[in-house]
Design a protein that fits this description.
Elements lengths: L1 H5 L8 E7 L12 E6 L5 H8 L18 E6 L3 E5 L10 H16 L6 E7 L6 H12 L3 E7 L6 H15 L4 E2 L8 H12 L5
Parallel strand pairs: 2-4, 2-5, 5-6, 6-7
Antiparallel strand pairs: 1-3, 3-4
The structure holds guanosine-5'-diphosphate.
Length: 203
């Protein structure tokens, strides 16, 4: 922890996949702080996690949207657990699949083992969708702190970019952090935010 705070450019050299669970009740006991990452399918979640943790193949980029049905757990430098929540809002998914997804996520968020911080990923090209607003409602109900992370920020520039920032800030109530996995944009900032949020100086 101390080492993390001392560095300006943070590196997480040892991020490992731990396990996948199909049900929040099967979630392992751990003394480590926990962060979860949520977002629409195809939002760029796998790309962002691989860039954030500096490991290309850590999280498989989705070839088959809507087909991740598990909570995937990673451990960062033996200091932080990261839970990759299944992508939501895949339009063509059958109803029963959507219901199962909602139960899995809601069950996790309401569980005492849920994360203390959630990164909510939003595609900068589209802004928040209904399913994102539903997620925010669940997070607020569960009293879980979340931050808005806009992905694929390289896709908009100039006026379109300014307009989208305004729209997102209005819809979410907080400004999004702009990131791009493609251009490695916003990653150091995001690492710093995570460290400050998870390991603040109050302890
Ligand atoms: P996931 O389904 O949320 O895990 O999304 P992926 O990481 O698999 O990305 C979905 C698609 O968006 C892929 O075609 C990626 O190449 C693309 N993508 C992801 N991140 C970025 C980014 O920062 N910029 C751009 N332009 N495309 C991205």
């Amino acid at each position: 922890m101390q080492l993390w705070r001392m560095t300006t450019s943070i590196l997480w050299p040892n991020t490992q996949f731990k396990l996948s669970v199909a049900d929040a009740t099967l979630f392992p006991d751990s003394a480590l702080p926990q962060m979860a990452v949520a977002g629409h399918s195809n939002v760029g979640k796998s790309s962002l996690l691989n860039t954030l943790f500096g490991r290309k193949g850590l999280v498989k980029t989705s070839k088959n949207p809507g087909c991740t049905r598990l909570l995937n757990v990673f451990e960062v430098d033996a200091q932080l657990m990261v839970v990759d929540l299944p992508g939501y809002g895949y339009a063509r998914a059958p109803k029963v699949e959507k219901k199962r997804w909602a139960q899995l996520i809601e069950g996790y968020l309401q569980s005492p083992k849920a994360a203390q911080l959630v990164l909510l990923l939003l595609d900068f090209r589209h802004g928040p969708k209904d399913s994102d607003l539903q997620m925010i409602e669940w997070l607020n109900e569960a009293d879980i702190h979340w931050i808005a992370v806009a992905t694929k920020a390289d896709k908009l520039a100039g006026n379109a970019k300014r307009k989208r920032i305004q729209e997102m800030t209005h819809a979410l109530g907080i400004p999004p952090l702009l990131t791009s996995s493609l251009k490695n944009q916003g990653m150091d900032e995001l690492r710093n935010i995570i460290i400050n949020e998870i390991f603040n100086d109050d302890d």
